[in-house]
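Working notes for the structural subgroup meeting. M.R. asked for a predicted model of this chain before we commit to crystallization trials. I am recording the input and output together here so anyone reviewing the notebook later can reproduce the run.

Input as submitted:
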Amino acid sequence: MVIGAGLAGSAVAQVMAQAGWLVTVVDQAEQPAQAASGNLAGLVHPLLTADWNIRSQFYWQGLQATWRWVADWVEQGQVIGDLSGLRQALLSDEDLQISTKWLTQLDIPREWVRVEAASSANQPAGLVYRQAGWLSPPSLVQRALDHPSIRFQGGLEVEALVWHASSQQWHIRSGATTLNADAVVIATGALSRLNQAWQLPIRPLKGQVSYMNQQDCPYPLTGAMAHQGYTTPPVNGYWVTGATFEAPDVSQTTSLASHQSNAEKLAAVIPDWGLPAASLWQGRVGFRPTTADHLPIIGALPDADWVEKAYLSQPHNKALFQYPAQRYHPALWVSQGHGARGLMSVWWAAERIRDQILGVSSAAADAESEMNRLDAAVHPGRFRLRPWRKGQLSGHTLC
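Returned structure, recorded in token form:
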């Protein structure tokens, strides 16, 4: 069973169905992709940093996984989007010089990215990613759930998960309904009560995406563009631009101020586009499930009581071999906290959860080593263990 029918949950469902499992996907909404995954469009491209840090490495691998699963669907017209390229705008000569320097230092295939100077006021200098672009998350969720071994049940808010050792199954309760599953993956997004129940440190971060009627814009963009926000070609008759970051606002209504903020970001890179008045725009509010280190939470879920007993209540400075091995809840995994970059992470997460469930490991030692590093970076227990390892716990207050 997968709890959550957004990008993360639908990716897990598709990958597990392809692996031969029967999958039930449940969601508190009546239809899939009703939360943050309901935005009309989002971007797909690498995250470049000068030091090629763990986040860059993770999203590079995540991008490859997205490409493996989604590219053919886009080419065949089964998913709305375009993965033939996008431009990441650079607004100053300094940005251009820095990006040029980065690319000479980073070991990234040149067929993926190059630097281009500005060609006009509305075509700024930028990093041009060839194997990147934009996707419509609702259409991707719909395609991912389209498998004979996947069943969707909407209108079910999961209230409790109870493991029954006698049957080796989870009992999933929603009101008067109880469902059973051999394995459960939590992929519920930002506003789920399960986040607190299972000590998943998810921070909801509000974002408003703006939609402009296609006929209100004087001429089309040549493709998707990343800037302080992002802008894509029309989806279902609307240009899409966004998105705001509005912590700690929890209002679920759209606002003119947020439309104007999105308009300012767009005007900074395409000053002559002649945007319609923001008061004419439509839009949508969603809440990104974010984490403190801006990486998702992926993998088997540690037993919190065991962590407290075996680690957090013990001195933090003993040799590692003196501590017992981590213990996990039986047959319980999580794919959460994908934030604003879920299109570049949910498919890697789904593949990794599949491999953990099936006990699959890479045959190549160097690939296995890299996978272990990425597993550690997104491990569900890292936010409890890191402050303990550093001797920073105070009354076991953990964020």
